[in-house]
Design brief:
By secondary structure, the protein is mainly alpha-helical. The chain is 64% helix and 12% strand. A three-stranded mixed beta sheet has the order 1-2-3.
Length: 255
Amino acid sequence: HPFGHGKVENISGTVEAVLIFIAAGWILFEAADKLRDPRPLDEAGWGILVMLLSVAANTIVSRRLHQVGEETGSIALKADACHLHADIYTSLGVLAGLAIITTGKLVVPDINLQWIDPAAAIVVALLIIRAAYHLTLESARDLIDVGLPEDETDDLRRHIAAFAPTIRGFHKLRTRKAGADRFVEFHIRVDAAMSVDESHRITDMLTCSIKEHYPGTTVSIHIEPCNCALAQEESCGCLLSEETRKSLKAVEEPN
């Protein structure tokens, strides 16, 4: 599977998303149990201190992971960053609950605020589920070879169009992604009289142009002969204007 190793990252991201869903489910289960059977909290002050340290550490690490994940296109790193984001939500929820309960004991000691802890846990669990849902979409979609985002596809079209009129048209543009690796393939139409050497040089230049913008991209280009004086835009995606096609037709028609 020379084209499939990159998808290991997507599998890793999907598995991590499932684990986050399980963690959120367990939080909901525990929170519901504590709502039914409230229990007093001990040593809330230590809990607040631990949560503050946890939030600070996870914030620093998750931001760095997300940054590197974006730079490298690694879905596994972005999944881990999402996992740590979920930990931050958890810690903040616990911190808020502990702070309210601790303050309540000092300000209004006669009011039972123990229910706030499981209520905060439920809110946190819902936030975690939302994050895990988006992570699942991002990591699992590449497993079924979804195309690249629309902005990247439009950018690829601009790279191809930059070689007009040497490239007279293109069609059958298909894209996919496996982990951080992009795969792009399309057909281009060139002058039927162009030599194999010249057409190969054009494809090399176009491939280098795409790879310069998207490093690590695998580009496959199929060359087809084209008489753009006769080509129709809907049939070959011709890049030439109507005026240019008329000029070519006048040159190519025999006297």
